[in-house]
Amino acid sequence: MGRIRRPVRLAGVLTLCAALASCSQTQTGTDAAAGDRDEQRIPAARAADAEPFTLVASGDVIPYPSIMRQARQDAGGEGYDFTRIFAGIRPVVAQADLALCHMETPYGDDDGPFTGYPLFRSPPQLAESLRATGYDSCSTASNHTLDAGMEGLTRTLRAMDEAGLEHAGSARSSRERNSPTLLKAGRATVAHLSYTYGTNGIPVPDGKPWAVNLLDPRKVVADARAARKAGADVVVASVHWGTEWQQKPDARQLRLAKRLTASRSDGRRDIDLILGTHNHVPQAYEKVNGTWVVYGLGDQVASFIPSMYRGNEGSTARFTFTPPERAGEPWTVSEAGFLVTHSDTGPPFRVVRATEDRFPEVRQRVREAVLSRGAADDGLTETR
Q: 276-305: b or e for each residue (b if 16 or more CB lie within 10 Å)?
């Protein structure tokens, strides 16, 4: 196996109340609850030291029973090994300076039981396979975050910790919730934030409002500003939103994208990139207020019945961020690209790239969706 990067999660966070106080004269007001305070801060990269970095992000990982059976078979009948399932996308993921995934489902105990829809419990060995594929951090805020209760949430984050896989979007304490996930990409510091529109009617546990981040634009902006104060050069927000099976972004997605990308502090954007999940089908990429928004990446690992076969199609985003000439100024996206992926049900089940030669119909459908709001005019290209 080739070299896998291991970004360092950087300690150091301001409370959201502190973030509010420091941003009282900015364009967008916020409400936030007090949290724990850690005075250690990480300085943003100095312009003279910084170099461009490439970020790759992929869509929902949803291990349905058929996928778990494949992972069991790939492990020789003992345990679960998902690395072969991801092997087709590994070269793209492992070569990026920073790779982000979306872990849609919570994990069960080591020996199960493991279940599919409507209440998921996935094998915890999945975290090791994601890390081995080259992923550095996963968003964990989704409508299924609480499928297995607080116990499942805790198991999921513990398995990710043990695998060396960072995470954002759910938490085991208020301190963890208020500590932004800060990752190193070269000499740049990148904050990874994550939010969901809801939890399928499952209430957030009593006395634990910090367990999962719900999608409130005021909270997103407050968290982004706190992450910037903690040293983030680039702030990336993963958002679980939209209408399932709808190719076009819905009215709320469009409205929130405009609001979040318009937010500024001292003239600098608060959020540098928005990555959408949940829709099951790829949606458009678009520049909004000068910031790239991926409304929906589609699913990366899923296995649907033929009438819902589009749920096996996804896009993987690839953005190159370039540092400013002077420290303190914003980083910019100098290259924006995407590639098309497909969950080939086989057998065996594998995630593969869809190209002109392999699954050309999938490639064409995803291309049309991704480019449907004029992203090509803003420089988005298909990665070869």
A: bbbbbbbbbbbbbeebbbbbbbbbbbbbbe
Give the confidence band of 50 by pLDDT, cuts at 50, 70, 90: confident
Note whether 129 and 82 are within 8 A (CB). yes
Q: Which fold has domain 16-20+44-382?
A: Purple Acid Phosphatase; chain A, domain 2 (3.60.21)
The DSSP symbol for 310 reads G
Per DSSP (E only), the strands in 49-113 are 53-61, 98-103
Supply 210's token pair.
């910090």
- Report helix, strand or coil for 339: strand
Quick one: pLDDT band at residue 48, thresholds 50, 70, 90? low
- Strand (E) or helix (H) holding 292: strand 291-294
Query: Which residues, 6 or more positions from 8, have their beta carbon under 8 angstroms from its beta carbon?
Result: 183, 184
Report residue 361: phi and psi, to 5°. -65, -40
Task: Give residue for tokens 């990752």.
Answer: 183
Structure tokens at 230: 């903690």
What's at 317, amino acid-wise?
A: A
d(CA 57, CA 52): 17
* 138 alpha carbon, distance to own chain's centre: 5
State how beta strands 188-196 and 166-168 pair. unpaired
Q: Are 167 and 213 in contact (CB under 8 A)?
A: no
30-44, 160-174, 211-225: range with lowest mean pLDDT: 30-44
Element (H, E) at 86: helix 83-86
Strand partners, 301: 61
- Report how far residue 310's alpha carbon sits from residue 368's, in angstroms, rounded to the nearest whole number: 13
Phi-psi group of 374: left, alpha or beta (phi > 0 → left; psi -120 to 50 → alpha; rest → beta) = left
> Is-contact 235 228, C-beta < 8 A?
yes
Percent of the chain whose pLDDT exceeds 70? 86
d(CA 85, CA 83) in angstroms, rounded, equals 5
Residue in the block written with tokens 């699954």: 359
240-291 confidence digits (pLDDT tens): 999 999 999 999 999 999 999 999 999 999 999 999 999 999 999 999 999 9
Tell me whether strands 137-139 and 166-168 are parallel, antiparallel or unpaired: parallel
